[in-house]
């Protein structure tokens, strides 16, 4: 292996290790502005047009991922399963929404296959948009994707929006108690 790929691999390993050690960001400062990608055009895993506004009226758990990720995203999906169970235990399921950071590869068909293979329930939704809309929502979530040949490096962020679409909780990494995400 040449020095450059080894350096990239070491840098990626360090980045993953550091992201797992980030402290919980806990209850976020209440936000008066909803998290939304105004004028954004997303489609879901079935190819239907969808907007973040369509989830208003109930809490929503929102995160970012991409299907070909083998490092952070599987751990994020696992943590989201825990968060989902915590919401169910406290009174019922809420929408779990994942934005793909790789809309060129993650077609609606691929997102649907990902959902089906992992036996994720109907209240889990996968969004894909064009580059500009994806980047706008990623900035609001503070996942800071960095695109490299063959990989997307990004922050791990799980956000919980209140029924009005405002940020109620925000967690960095996976080391938080899933029940701390519950908002009603």
Layout of helices and strands, plus pairs?
Elements: H1 3-21, E1 42-43, E2 49-50, E3 60-65, H2 72-89, E4 96-100, H3 108-117, E5 124-129, H4 131-141, E6 146-148, E7 151-153, E8 157-161, E9 167-172
Quick overview of this protein structure:
The chain is an alpha+beta fold and 184 residues long. It has one domain (3-181): Glutaredoxin. It has helices at residues 3-21, 72-89, 108-117, 131-141; strands at residues 42-43, 49-50, 60-65, 96-100, 124-129, 146-148, 151-153, 157-161, 167-172.
Detailed description of the structure:
By secondary structure, the protein is α+β, with helices and mostly antiparallel strands. The protein has a single domain (3-181), classed as Glutaredoxin, CATH 3.40.30. The chain is built from four helices and nine strands. It has helices at residues 3-21, 72-89, 108-117, 131-141; strands spanning 42-43, 49-50, 60-65, 96-100, 124-129, 146-148, 151-153, 157-161, 167-172. α3 links the parallel β4 (96-100) and β5. The chain is globular and about 40 Å long. The model is unreliable at 2-30 (pLDDT under 50).
């Amino acid at each position: 292996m040449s020095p450059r790929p080894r350096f990239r691999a070491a840098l990626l390993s360090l980045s993953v290790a550091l992201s797992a050690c980030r402290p919980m960001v806990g209850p976020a400062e209440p936000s008066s502005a909803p998290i939304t990608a105004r004028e954004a055009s997303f489609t879901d895993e079935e190819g239907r047009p969808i907007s973040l506004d369509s989830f208003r009226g109930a809490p929503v758990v929102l995160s970012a991922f991409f299907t070909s990720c083998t490092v952070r995203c599987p751990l994020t999906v696992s943590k989201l399963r825990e968060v989902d169970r915590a919401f169910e235990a406290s009174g019922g399921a809420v929408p779990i929404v994942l934005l793909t950071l790789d809309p060129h590869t993650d077609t609606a068909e691929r997102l649907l296959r990902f959902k089906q293979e992992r036996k994720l329930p109907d209240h889990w939704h996968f969004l894909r948009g064009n580059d500009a809309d994806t980047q706008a929502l990623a900035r609001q979530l503070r996942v800071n994707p960095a695109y490299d040949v063959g990989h997307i490096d990004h922050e791990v962020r799980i956000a919980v929006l209140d029924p009005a679409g405002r940020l109620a909780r925000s967690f960095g990494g996976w080391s938080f108690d899933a029940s701390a995400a519950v908002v009603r």
